[in-house]
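Um, can you check?
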Amino acid sequence: MEPGLEDVSNCDVLVVGGGPGGCATAIGCAQLGLKVVLIESKPFPRTHPGETLHPGVEPLLKQLGVLEPVLAAGFLRHKGNWVQWSEESEFVPFGEDDSGAWLGFQAWRADFDTILLNCAREIGVKVIQPCHASRLVMDGCRVIGVETSLGTFRAAKIIDATGDHHWLAQQLGLEICYHSPRLIAYYGYVIGECPARDDAPAIVADSSGWTWTAKVRLQLYQWTRLSFVEQKIAKDWLPNEFFGLKIYQAMRAANVTWRIVSQPAGYGYFLVGDAAMVLDPTSSHGVLKAIMSGIWVSHAIASELLGNLTEQQAIDHYCLWIHNWFRHDMKNLSSLIAKLPSPPFWI
């Protein structure tokens, strides 16, 4: 154990991963009086895709006590999205209430993730970074700790918030159930001016998939391309509306194959966000799901440690919730994709 870390080598909750899901879990547990340690492998700020946040995230951010700094960050806001799923393009608003129109965020993830991590620190979470998780520590079939680059940390609960590589699931040999062929989303950024995208993002379908475009910062735009058939794209590929703009950073790819870990909770562990389940980003709900699952887990852990739930009840409730959520979203995505001009055969 590194000098100075001995006092946190044992805690109530150890969170592996400092993204939105990990921070939501850590903050939620700390709010409930638990001793929390969060380890993150990369220094911040870090670049990460997935800037579009649904308005439904706002009450969750308020619950976590992070809404004010998020609003103060000055992220771009929008009332809805342009959608062209057939021949005509239409604006689809998020909705409104007595307070006015609901607004989504275009949250630059390097800033957004840093805000959440700083708020976790401020509420008492011990944040250790960079710190690389290498191996789980087991006591029979129970997860009791994690070996890291800075020593071994033990906790009553271990949270995998490391994302779509399913680190803890791979460590335990948990089954990962696939529900689509291999799907790869390509994404990139361009610098310049594209007035058509200044008011709201757009998603445009074609015969083989869809393309998402959005303004994320001043003179900075993001695109995502997902094809439902095996299709490689050129390294300098851009959506038509971005022709003439300067490429910012190399194009990247993400595996968005539909999948879910068979047992997203077990003895001594929970999986949150993409570590538990992955669907393609059509709905732009990835961050929302990560935060919701983190909050859910924090309440489950507190209920168990306070004796209001047995461990098995907490495990069963969370697994059922995750699987029901996955099936619901998969059904809705399938219905949407079936409306494409040439829907894939597997839908």
User: Anything to note?
Assistant: Helices lie at 20-31, 57-64, 67-72, 109-122, 167-172, 286-305, 311-337. The radius of gyration is 20 Å.
